[in-house]
Amino acid sequence: MNRGKFIALEGGEGTGKSTQSRLLAAALQEGGIDVVVTREPGGTPGAEAIRSLLLDPPGDGWGPRAEALLFAAARSDHVEKTILPSLDAGKWVVCDRFLDSSRAYQGGAGGVGDEVVLALHTIGSKGLRPDLTLLVQVPPARVAARLAERDGDTSDAIGGRDASYHADVAASFSLFVEQEPGQFAVIDGDAAPEEVHKRIMAAIAPLLDTPA
Q: Using CA atoms, how far apart are residues 141 and 11, in angstroms rounded to an integer?
């Protein structure tokens, strides 16, 4: 059996990753591909429990190092129990966030350091990387409007951080693209969902044209 493909969608808050994950999975399924749609943190019962701890933390919340460790633990369980078994079964995996979110949020904006996040990933998930990472980018002003419409005055512990933190997240993602251009496809997300979906389908076309 041929191994499936692994696609991750990345980007800051309010860029439409979740919507595009669903649209991509539906399109692949219509094309006869068996798809698993998942997310991070999450994707297994244990990882979903950690998600709750991260997004609605107890007490004063987590410091950046503890946060990085929790994300790495959730990802380890997710990779072992959901992602790798699905790929080995010939399924495609579409994941809303993966390693590069930890690199951008905890490693970059949180100051933990990229090398630390990558080391945790090597230990916890054997260094697994997606076949392609789709980085969805939307101008900050547009993101702010989307978040105000979506969340109102409420947000989770990470999404609700200040503008400078999220600017550092965006800068980190841009740096990753510069460093590893073959790993990423940058998607302009400032359009109607259907148009962004077309851009994503064009970006993944090479994967559809190659054997699994």
A: 15
DSSP for 14-36, please give it: TS-HHHHHHHHHHHHHHTT--EE
Residue 149 within any structural domain of the chain: yes
- What span, in angstroms and rounded, lies between the C-alpha atoms of 24 and 8? 11
Structure letter (DSSP) for residue 109: I
* Token pair for 189: 């997300």
Cβ count near 211 (within 10 Å): 5
Residue with the bigger pLDDT between 185 and 12: it is 185
Residue 1, domain member (yes or no): no
pLDDT value at residue 161:
83
Round to whole Å and give the CA distance between 187 and 196: 7
Q: Mind listing the pLDDT tens digit for each residue in 50-70? A: 999 999 999 988 999 999 999
State the average pLDDT for the chain.
92
Residue 22 burial (C-beta neighbours within 10 Å; 0-12, 13-18, 19+): middle
pLDDT at 96 over 70: yes
Instruction: Write out the residue range of the structural domain in which residue 50 sits.
Output: 6-208
pTM over 0.90: yes
Number of domains in the chain: 1
In the three-class reduction of DSSP (H, G, I as helix; E, B as strand; rest coil), residue 186 is classed as strand
Per DSSP, helices labelled H in the chain are 17-30, 45-55, 64-78, 84-88, 99-102, 114-125, 140-151, 163-179, 193-208
Residue 59 within a domain: yes
